Amino acid sequence: MASKVIPWYKKKRVSQVQSDYAYHHTKHVVKQQQTESRKSSSKSAIQVQAQATAAMAEPAYTVPVFRQRSSEETEEYQRVTTNVGKGLAVIQEELHRMRMATKAQVESLELQREVRGMMSKRGDMLDEIPKMPDFLVALRPHTVWEKTPVKLFCTVQGNPRPIVKWYKGGAPVDPLSAPGKYKIENKYGVHSLIISRCVVSDTAEYSAVATNPHGTATSKAAVTVKRASGAGESCHLGLVPHLTVIHPSKLEVSLLDRFSVSFGVEGGSISLVCTMVVVPDLPNLPPLAQWYRDDKLLKPSNLVEMAVGGSAARLMLPHLAKDDEGLYTLRIFTKDGTAEHSAYLFVSDAPPSAAGAPGAPMSVKAYDINADYVLVAWKPPNTVNEAPLTGYFVDRCEAGSDSWVQSNDAPVKVCKYPVHGLSTGRSYHFRVRAVNSAGISRPSRKSDKVTALDAAESERLQGTDEGYVTIPGEPTDVHASEVFKSYVVLSWKPPSPRGRAPLWYVIEKCIAGTGAWQRINASVKLHSPRYPVFDLQDGQKYQFRVYSVNMHGSSEASASSEPVQKVDQDGVPSAPGQVVATRNSKSSVFVQWDPPKQVKNLMGYYIDGRVVGSKEWFPCNHKPFKHNRFVVHGLIPGETYVFRAQAANVFGLSEESQESSPIAVEPALATPSSPFGITMLSCDGASMTVAWKSPKHCGGSKVNAYYIDKRNADTLTWKEVNLVAVTERLCTVDSLTEGIFYEFKVQAGNLAGVGVPSAPSAPMKCEAWTMEEPGPAYDLSFSEVRGHSLVILWKAPVYTGASAVSGYLVDMAKKGSSEFVTLTQEAVSHRYLQVSHLEEGQTYVFRVRAVNANGVGKSSQVSEPVCARALPGAQEIVANVDGDTGDIFLSLEACEICETSKFVWSKNYKPIGDCPRVEVTTKGRTSRMTFTHPDKDDLGKYSVVVTDTDGVSASHTLSEDALNTMLELSQAIRHPIVPLKHGLNYEILEKGHVRFWLQAVKLSPSVSYRFIVNDKEVTSGEGHKISHDVATGIIQMTVDHFTRANEGTYTVQIHDGKAKAQSSLVLVGDVFKAALKEAEFQRKEHIRKQGPHFSEYLYFTVTEDCTVMLACKVANVKKETTFHWYKEEEEIVPETPPNVLSGACALPIALFSRKDQGVFKATLGDDRGKDTSLFDISGQVFDDIINALAQNAGASASELVMQCTPEGIRLQCYMNYYTEEMKTVWKHKETKIASSEKMRIGGTAEMAWMQICDPSDKEKGHYTIEISDGVQTHTRTFDLSGQAYTDAYEEYLRLKAAAFAEKNRGRVVGGLPDVVTIMEQKSLSLTCTVWGEPTPEVTWFKNEQEVCSTEHTKVTFDGGKFSSLIINQVTPEDSGKYSINVRNKYGGEFVEITVSVYKHGEQIPEAKLGQPKSATPAVTPVPPRSPALPSKTPTPSKSQTPAPPGKTPTPASTPAPSMRSQASTPASTPVPKSPTPTPKSPTPTPKSPTPNPRGVKSPTPPRFMKSPTPPRK
Fold this sequence. Notes:
Blueprint: E1 24-27, H1 49-56, H2 71-128, E2 131-137, E3 142-145, E4 150-159, E5 163-168, E6 171-172, E7 182-187, E8 190-195, E9 204-212, E10 215-226, E11 252-255, E12 262-265, E13 270-279, E14 289-293, E15 296-297, E16 305-309, E17 312-317, E18 326-334, E19 337-348, E20 362-367, E21 373-379, E22 389-398, E23 405-406, E24 416-420, E25 427-436, E26 439-440, E27 450-451, H3 457-462, E28 476-483, E29 488-493, E30 504-511, E31 518-519, E32 530-533, E33 541-550, E34 553-554, E35 564-565, E36 579-585, E37 588-593, E38 604-611, E39 618-619, E40 629-632, E41 640-649, E42 652-653, E43 663-664, E44 676-683, E45 688-693, E46 705-712, E47 719-720, E48 730-733, E49 741-750, E50 753-754, E51 764-765, E52 778-783, E53 790-795, E54 805-814, E55 821-822, E56 832-835, E57 843-852, E58 855-859, E59 866-867, E60 878-881, E61 888-893, E62 903-907, E63 910-911, E64 918-923, E65 926-931, E66 940-946, E67 953-958, H4 960-974, E68 980-988, E69 994-1000, E70 1008-1013, E71 1016-1018, E72 1024-1029, E73 1034-1039, E74 1048-1056, E75 1059-1067, H5 1069-1088, ...
Parallel strand pairs: 3-10, 12-19, 92-99
Antiparallel strand pairs: 1-19, 2-4, 4-8, 5-6, 5-9, 7-8, 9-10, 11-13, 13-17, 14-15, 14-18, 16-17, 18-19, 20-21, 21-24, 22-23, 22-25, 25-26, 25-27, 28-29, 29-32, 30-31, 30-33, 33-34, 33-35, 36-37, 37-40, 38-39, 38-41, 41-42, 41-43, 44-45, 45-48, 46-47, 46-49, 49-50, 49-51, 52-53, 53-56, 54-55, ...
């Protein structure tokens, strides 16, 4: 677009309303150039719009009347033209100048009128909007010399007009304190402070504080006063800096690449960049650039980043929000004024937080700021397809915090909300969220920071004339400043005088006319002269009054307000008027509309669009647009749209306007640009054939005429070549003189008229071509341009040379390079070539050379540069079959199209035209080529080109396989069948019913069908039920009683519209027998289930503790139902009786092993019947149970533990349960171990073990146990090597020695009783067998005193095996505790015997261990039995039961021995032996040098014990 340069000193600071509202335009000053008009007076479409509109309706271009001349008139026409040409040109130029001047004057007057109207409206609107103070021109710092004046000035705006006060270092500047020193002025809105004759003490920070009822603004600047060198005290800032030699406005700046219309999304980021050329280009002096959004100057912040340098001006928006949408303008100050460029930025809504939720509000601002009250206002979001808004939530947070607090409990319905309850002196941010029935929107961008301060507080603190005031005066002017349906805002003026003490207010209300006043802010100290009231009843009128209160007391009540009723003062505006859409560009449309009749303080308009034929509307803008005309960008070229508008104000959105008329997205109609690339194709000495290239811009209408002019290269007069328009880009110019150089120029015409002529061609000599090689090819064009490939096409040369053209060579080079590369080794015979392996984004040029038998001819003109990049949205040709008709077709949906576009289909790049084999149809942006009778003759490469576009094209190769596939699909569509998911099948139901069914993919409600069994149709009736379900596509027939008569063939025939289907099922032979058997079984099952029965037959489970449970589930039981378990027909009575009423019964089998194999049976019965379930635990079932146990055991298996024994080293693995039936493998160094004398393998119920007997170094290494459960192998390992093996081997040797000692120590093998009761005068013989290796020593004791052999007491020890203590004629003194000590070098044993002697005639005393009794009369002693010979390996004798008390032993017998206590020798204190045998510990305990307590024995482990069980770790 043209740029316009305006000198900065002439630029008016007036907001201008542009008539076209272009979103992508550039202003720059250019010199007015005069262009020569064609001799034919072609009228501009803009000047005569009515004629252009009429011409658009004509089918073809009409040749002007002045061109329709006969041959006789031509010569006269040329003569007259020569004489009056100059005069006619002058007259036409003057007429054109006058027309343009008149038009410009009219437009200027209209524009001025409209501007005045808009400015007056804008002024009225601005006067009505309250606004806090804002500095337009802030204070600037100054550095001055001593005794010189300085002037500080600023410009501030606000509504109402702010009051400005000056401060020095925070203290007020008082002109009266130093007369003549300070001067404060306020002229035309410029506030100034003049300090005359500055001194060093005037160096300070000066501030201007602007205040109005809506807030306070401050501007600060430093003033530095410098004293001349040597004049005494100097300022700390040092020397005054030098001014810049060159000001940025003295640079020459030319804009190059400009930013275009841009699109962003909330939460994203975007950069607007404009490159430029700066003269002179000084690195330390960049141009002065300013950025504007909607004519408002932008300043750098965390939301806006600006940079100028590196020959570019950049604007970065890092956190996009809809507030950022608008027209962005870059203004750069130059030597000749300013250079500007503008483009629109659209910011769309981010994805909603919930489906259907509205977009976020925008433009959140705070007004009427007070100590504890702020009025927050915002703009409503556009709702296109979302549900209507129900209200808004307003959130606040303190500055520096991320904690947001919701201010209103219920959604507010208007775009204003008074936030009260703020903390005085604190700063806040605000945001808003919209609400509808679907959810809550994302929050808006937070507002600027505002501080809750009373605007009059500074006056109170700085005032000096109210010091005597204690009790304040009453407020005045109490009124409702905001009245809405949901709240009312009360406002009043602070009291005067008010005093210096802090002030607050008390508000009372009453229903109008009643006088019953009620306080409404009892719990809130109100510091601001504003208060929102929410709890007013609808329809009631209220009056309000206010008190002023401070620490000294309360004022009188203010005057009552006028009656206030809570109603909406106004509503949404009416709908906008007629919407008109006109063509603008290839991707945009200009939309304008009439303003609504009821404006009601408009915020702006929302514009929505919709593609014709679609029901979905889309937003064209996302922020209210203030004017009633808008350019909608980002549309699909060639697509047709309709538009509508909505007006927005504080109450929301109006009704939608009526839709505009449909409009296709096309460029505005204009004359075409000039053709170019004129080249000579042939010459015979009297004529020349020339060709040219199409205009780059057709002007929105098809180019249908070309006019050629010629001239002698030595003259300036142009002559027309053709009076009748040429439609092809090729023309033969006759009547030329051989040897003369000629120049040509061409004009193109369309419906809008004749465009500007081309530049004159290079001089061409009229000389006959006689070379034998062919002439140049021409009209190079490109198709199917993609990222890495393209197709180049050309036309055959007009001059063929001495022989026919046999082929072509194609050369390629990168743009800017002269090094061409030939793409083909041999000439191609056709006039197209597909070029591949291109670099995406690279630009190339091409040329073509024709070849004949005589050689290679002239090169064609170099083609236009082409970039290897696909068009945005480019589609490929799709080959498919019509689902309704079965036609095979190729189709393309164009990404771009215009009204004049046509789809040109080609086969092998030859236009198809009117061919009976295909039929081409076009609808909208889609063209379809349908094959009428497809066969192998249709195979080939098809391409399509969309004319009057930027190269929309595509191709597709139709292969034989693809054609055959589509032919099959076409046949299926033209002769449809009902597709079946499942063919006819049968299913056995309960009660023995048989269901025959099939399922179709889809059925319509009008489907019809019939069942045929053995060639006879079956209908629904007794014994047969036939039905179907359209939703599932199932057709079924149920046979109630299935018997042998039902054997045969079943068929279903379906008719659904035109589609048919048939499916059969042959149910004979073995298949029928199986079905019949299953039906009879189900029938019996149904009968069985009428009584108590098993709903689930016996099955097994394994619990965590490895108990096998045989379980079943029962049904239809009652209290009287009995349940029994059996194994091999032998009844099993479990500890817990089965409870059938629970629905499940189980039989636990603990410690499961091979002994539990067998057939288990469960029976269930009562008076209604009986049911039985069998479970055979053998074979595979047994293996499955073992595997289940192994899975549990393997999962619970501990790591291998080493245990040393006297026999060797044992590795043990603990688990929940172990049995030898488990598949357990021990490995040593990956070699399987078999059980042997050397390696013993065994286990207990809690562990598996492997013992290495008599270990040696060969047994070192890695040991592994593998427990397999049939699916998974559980592995545990132990490394028996190194120190672990050394320690284990030492422990083994120690235990082995201890066992040997235990085996060979001295001990009593047998023969001694524990207690002896004998009558007085009898002889007592205590005899026992002893053993030990070497032969032990034997010592007898009585009451711990050694017994020596005497006549009364005789001690014998025969053969080293038998020891006796014989007491002749016992007396009561012989009663006592006797013991024998047997020991050798390995140890010994101490055995105790209690002897009781009673007198003759006395009752035999009860034997008490360890207590001697009175002797009984003597009896004749009986010789003792010969003790039994000891076994080869002595083992402890089994304990014997003592004789019952009261039974007197006969004199002839040896007293029955009772249980005896054994202890290792020597013994300390004899302990009585327990009469109940205690199980001996299977773990051998090594011999201890310290004696154990008496009665405790360490026996030798018997050989039959396989595994000592150590304590579990």
